[in-house]
Amino acid sequence: METVAVPAELRARLAAWRQEGRRIGLVPTMGYLHEGHLRLIDLARERADRVVATIFVNPLQFGPREDLSRYPRDLDRDRALLAERGTDLLFTPTVEVMYPEPVEVRLEPGAMASRWEGAVRPGHFSGVLTVVAKLFHLVGPDVACFGQKDFQQAALIRRMVRDLDWPIELVVGSTVREGDGLALSSRNVYLGPEDRIRARLLSAALRSAQRAWRDGIADAGGIAAAARAVFGTDPTVTVDYIAVADPDTLEPVATVSPSTVVMVAARIGTTRLIDNAILDQPIP
């Protein structure tokens, strides 16, 4: 695996592959990789001849009181994991490379970004879509892979690809979990032993919502109440939202269907975690 840090070197490697007729896959990340990221590398390898991973902690998607400065980083570890998984090229730009001047033009999403994460983190999705658009322009991938854990993000990127007519196959990989159900996240490293136990409430709440649906509850309020009851067992956990929504539009629904998504966000101590599940796709 080769590592490059500036766009000119990245484009030179990509141009050579394109001349050979290679299909290119892209996996954008912010680093501090876990098995969920590496499964996306696997998905890209299944669909492309060459796989490009990127590691860039994007300041545009962090709010002023969020964890940009302490976001976990370990480039040497990440590089070794990506090489072992068969990544062909790693792009590791600095902030100065990605944003050499103050950012004047950004992508601004519409209603799909106004709820849930967008309401809690104003400006977050504008920062996400702007950096993903830059990476799409730099790499020009045939296929790009993202994780289901960031469900709203993936839905917005899918809509961006469609609205802006990018000829990119978008693949969303299933959430990878610990044995007790906790979704893998780079931010899990923040959790102390007691908070790590509390963090299981997110997947437990989603399982409760799925059980309610299997038991015949069809109204969104009842599904949300089943999830909220689980969080209510620990008053130290602060729930940001429980969303019961259409998986494509992210609009809240009144009556659920098998494909309805339930998204949750909660604060465990000083750590904010998100998770989601489709009603007819049981959490392992």
Distance between the termini: 33 Å
CATH homologous superfamily descriptor of the largest domain: HUPs
- The helix/strand class is alpha/beta
* Main sheet overview: 6 strands, parallel
On the 0 to 100 scale, the average pLDDT is: 97
Please characterize this protein's 3D structure.
The chain is an alpha/beta fold. It has two domains: 2-173, 3-Layer(aba) Sandwich (Rossmann fold), CATH 3.40.50; 192-278, Pantoate--beta-alanine Ligase, Chain: A,domain 2, CATH 3.30.1300.10. It contains ten helices and nine strands. A six-stranded parallel beta sheet has the order 1-4-3-2-5-6, sandwiched between helices. It has a three-stranded antiparallel beta sheet with strand order 7-8-9. It is globular, with a radius of gyration of 19 Å. The mean pLDDT is 97.
Summarize the SSE layout with pairings.
Layout: E1 2-4, H1 7-19, E2 24-29, H2 35-47, E3 50-55, H3 75-84, E4 89-91, H4 95-98, H5 117-120, H6 124-139, E5 143-147, H7 151-163, E6 169-173, H8 193-198, H9 200-214, H10 220-231, E7 238-245, E8 261-268, E9 271-278
Parallel strand pairs: 1-4, 2-3, 2-5, 3-4, 5-6
Antiparallel strand pairs: 7-8, 8-9
